[in-house]
Write a structure and sequence with these properties.
- The chain has a single domain, classed as Porin, CATH 2.40.160.
- It is mainly beta.
- α5 packs antiparallel against α6.
- A 14-stranded antiparallel barrel has the order 1-2-3-5-6-10-11-17-18-19-20-21-22-23.
- The chain has seven helices and 23 strands.
């Protein structure tokens, strides 16, 4: 019987330790405002100032856009686990893990087709707006790792497996992905002639992305046989072979329009109308990642060889990675002078370099108990039926603002959490 710390360590080492840590729904340009996360990513219609750079640049040309706004080093962290929730692991609090729980976890992983861990972080060096112009510099790193059911079983029960009798196993479904990149974005919002009694604007964000690192590993027919006892593992990986902060570049464009009157606000944006980003694999290397062991000997091969020797499927997969288009629609309604309601609909292909939500529909609220204390909350439904619940607050002390947000996922086999904090000036 194992404690929760032992099991957690095994799960994390198996799912995250296989990669150099650097893949969730932030994109290469995260929102610098915690208000976005606090409303469960339903803030597009209200995005002004530095918030508009990532969500809809047209917000920079709207009434209510601040003359100047600045966010200094806002950060966001995300972690998630499928099939088993993080709270389930934590609930045992150092106690021995019952056999029934291990059986239940294994069945959940089998039903889900594997156990996937994902984590990420985003840090914005700064995001600022001066009138209709915005500038943002952000670095994003994301990682994911998946274990097939046969790879997860020994983590719970040892190499004899659940039944106590060795059997043939494979590592099918086991893989690792990771990447990190920095994006510089320049945005412009342009006011247009009024229409239908409201203000109208258009905007564009030009982005330049530098890819720092990318790593990938895939199971390639690994097998563990019971008779004769033989371990034949193959997990080829590809990653940079030396320290280099520039392993790929590309430019992209976001466009948007926005309209508002005294009560309603409407926003529409397309992110990554085009994006030319591609990894440069010249400085990369492949490691075969093989282990062959029987009763008499153990042979391993983790030596780096030129990328030209990598499996073509792995190389082509990295070369095909890019930032795909995302369609984002938002509506805002000012119920009272202190209550704003928002709703967003968003769709991405789900095949981008970044983990997207696939589809997103949700609602958010911003309620000012007192003028300087906005409280925020939101709920969203994303692809797969999962529900995101979020909450946060802002504290406005003259031009200085402090804000925080937290999001958690419900109605899924696992669990996903995200948190963000920010210090800003002129805008919350």
């Amino acid at each position: 019987m194992m404690s929760n710390r032992t099991v957690a360590a095994m799960i994390l080492s198996l799912t995250l330790g296989a990669a150099s840590f650097p893949r969730a729904a932030a994109g290469q340009l995260p929102s610098a405002s915690t208000a976005t996360l606090a409303t469960a990513n339903n803030y597009t219609a209200l995005a002004r100032g530095f918030t508009a750079i990532a969500l809809n640049p047209a917000g920079l040309g709207m009434p209510g856009n601040p003359g100047f706004s600045l966010a200094l080093l806002p950060v966001q962290a995300r972690v998630g686990l499928t099939a088993i929730s993080l709270s389930e692991i934590d609930s045992f609090g150092g106690h021995a893990l019952p056999r029934a729980t291990k059986d239940a976890w294994l069945q959940s992983v089998i039903a889900a087709g594997g156990l996937t861990a994902r984590a990420g972080a985003a840090a914005t060096a700064f995001a600022l707006s001066a009138g209709p112009v915005g500038l943002q510099v952000s670095t994003v790193g994301e990682a994911s790792s998946s274990l097939g059911p046969d790879a997860f079983e020994p983590a719970l029960f040892g190499n004899a497996g659940r039944t106590g009798t060795t059997r043939n196993m494979t590592l099918a479904g086991t893989e690792v992905n990771g990447w990190g990149a920095t994006t510089v974005a320049l945005a412009l919002g342009i006011p247009l002639p009024e229409t239908k009694g409201g203000s109208l604007s258009a905007g564009a964000t030009l982005k330049y992305t530098i890819g720092h690192a990318v790593a990938a590993a895939r199971d390639d027919g690994s097998a563990i046989t019971a008779s004769p006892i033989l371990i034949d593992l193959a997990l080829p990986s590809i990653a940079p072979d030396s320290f280099n902060l520039n392993n790929g570049t590309g430019m992209g464009l976001d466009i948007g329009v926005a309209w508002q009157d005294s009560t309603w606000a409407v926003s529409a944006a397309v992110q990554n109308v085009f994006h030319t980003f591609q990894w440069n694999l010249d400085a990369f290397a492949v490691r075969p990642g093989t282990v062959l062991a029987d009763n008499a000997s153990v042979t391993t091969d983790f030596d780096a060889v030129p990328v030209a020797s990598a499996p073509l499927t792995l190389v082509n997969e990295l070369l095909a990675q890019s930032f795909k288009p995302v369609v984002n629609l938002g509506v805002g309604y000012r119920a009272t002078s202190r209550i704003d309601l928002t709703a967003d609909f968003r769709h991405d292909s789900g095949e981008a370099l970044v983990y997207g939500e696939g589809s997103h529909i949700g609602m958010g609220v911003e309620f000012r108990v007192v003028p300087f204390l906005p409280l925020r909350g939101g709920v969203s439904r994303v692809s797969g039926g999962a529900v995101h619940l979020a909450a946060g607050f802002g504290l406005e002390m003259g031009p200085l603002n402090l804000s925080a947000a937290y999001l958690t996922e419900k109605n899924s086999a696992g669990q996903f959490r995200a948190a963000s904090v920010a210090l800003s000036f002129g805008h919350n």
